[in-house]
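# step 3/5: fold
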Amino acid sequence: MPRRAFSLRAYLALARARGAAGPGPDAPERPKGALLWLHACSRADTAPLETLAQRMIQQRPDLSLLRTGAWEQPDLTLPADTPSDAARFHATWRPDLGVWSGYDLSPALIAAATGPMILVNAGEEPFSTPAARWMPDAAPATLQLFSQIYATSAEASRALRRSGVESARIRAAGPLTDIPPALDCSDTAHEETAQILAARPLWLAARLRAPEARAVIDAHLRAARLAHRLLLVIVPQTVEDAAEAEAVARDSGARLCLWDADEMPDENTQILLCGDASELGLWYRLAPLSFLGGSLMPGEGGTNPFEAAALGSAILYGPNVGRHLTAYTRLVDAGAARIVRDTDSLGGAVAQLVAPDRAAAMAMAGWEIVSQGAEVTDAIIDAAFELIDAPPAPEVA
């Protein structure tokens, strides 16, 4: 084993001098079989890690998870970053693979790992450790403990190399994202519905919440003044949201069609209302433009935008998307999504973007982001299983 850098040895020596924090509260028992340890340094890291884990479990149903860090409900609170506490953690849990996401490193915990460790979403931000400011920076030496590091860009890869990480450990893959599996849709239903709605300009309000119904319907009626045959499809989040949307639509005087009542839209229909989100995969495929609900009102956190982008729909959204902020930022930067803040801005955006060429350009940009994210996820999964299945390294006498 190569000699550790002075900065890491100094950090571990000082941490050792502080002593162990003790065993802490009783922890759950380690599950049998392979164990994947997922550590998220921030809430933004949790969604991509969860998507990665669920994809891996689809391939290996016997794989167990240990979530630590910034999860809403972590499986375990990490111990203090001392050599003895770190050794106890790894002796108890024996993760077959650790996946770390974020810039806050725990050198003792990472150094004590008995299985391989992967770092994902390594960008250009500086990494940090709990070391005192007067100590030499242990972050570069800690980065060298990871078996593989997945950088978000070429510049991030160069920054890692400048910090001393071997090029062989760095993968310039791109960001790990929380792209969900594509929503299902019957081919027959798609073909039949496309024929019914042929030549109608169409936009979708997906996973609409009840308090957003008034703003969305008013925006539609304003946009329809410029596009007289424009049709709004509302797919509410719940049946309760559907009831409120129906009441608002009837109060507005709009000509309404209830999809779940087997009513068929005609040339005079202005709003088509579904009963819930069960057929959302169909409508994302048909709508060139989608407003994603849960974003105009505070407290909901928005809808995962990759759900729409993966099925070829351009995206409009409100300002309250904190739960998926990183995903929306990437799509906005690529030109695949646009923010709206109220009825006026939503109506104006719909009138502009419902044109096929404008929506298609945004949808293509979104599709490229989704495709890149899927490739990164696949690459990490392949590497993760290779590391999990690799025989243990022989002990050095």
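# step 4/5: annotate
The domain at 6-22+33-176 is CATH 3.40.50.2000 (Rossmann fold).
# step 5/5: archive (pending)
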